[in-house]
Amino acid sequence: MEFQSATDKIGGRYYVSVTSGYYCVNTRKFLIPHGQAGIKAIRGSLAIRLREWINLKKIMADIDSAHPTLVTVVPCFQRDDHMNQLGALQCSECPSGGVVTT
Ligand SMILES: [Zn+2]
């Protein structure tokens, strides 16, 4: 089976994807525009070429050492307020919650 595409949520409103034929890791933000039901990708994304992705992974330990607060960051979906539906729906970082504008 040939690889086609993979997308995964990395936290908040951000998703990362890799697609066959595109030699990059694409990070994109999604939100729910006012008056619309579903989530939409916003303009602009961060596309990192595969060789840049490899280099980024190599220096992650150095980045963590230089900025130790990054290691202790807790994503919104792992916080206590996301243990119930209302809390998650009110989250301003999640695609379905908070006040969303484009
Ligand atoms: Zn959230």
Task: Please give a structural write-up.
This protein is an alpha+beta fold and 102 residues long. It has one domain: Transcriptional Coactivator Pc4, Chain A (Transcriptional Co-activator pc4, Chain A, Roll). The chain is 22% helix and 30% strand. The protein contains two helices and four strands. The protein has helices at 50-66, 85-89, and strands spanning 5-11, 14-19, 24-31, 40-49. The chain has a four-stranded antiparallel beta sheet. β2 and β3 (24-31) form a beta hairpin. The longest helix has 17 residues, at 50-66. The N and C termini lie far apart (38 Å). The relative contact order is 0.16. The model is unreliable at 98-102 (pLDDT under 50). Residues 76-77, 82, 91, 93-94 line the site of zinc ion.
Radius of gyration: 16 Å
Task: Describe the global form.
Answer: flat
Mean pLDDT: 84
Helix content: 10-25%
What is the C-level CATH assignment?
Answer: Mainly Beta
Bound molecules: zinc ion
Looking across the biggest beta sheet, what order are the strands in? Answer: 1-2-3-4
User: Which runs of at least 5 residues are low in confidence (pLDDT < 50)?
Assistant: 98-102
What name does CATH use for the topology?
Transcriptional Co-activator pc4, Chain A
Overall tally of domains = 1
User: How large is the count of helical segments?
Assistant: 2
- The computed structural class is alpha+beta
CATH level-4 homologous superfamily: Transcriptional Coactivator Pc4, Chain A
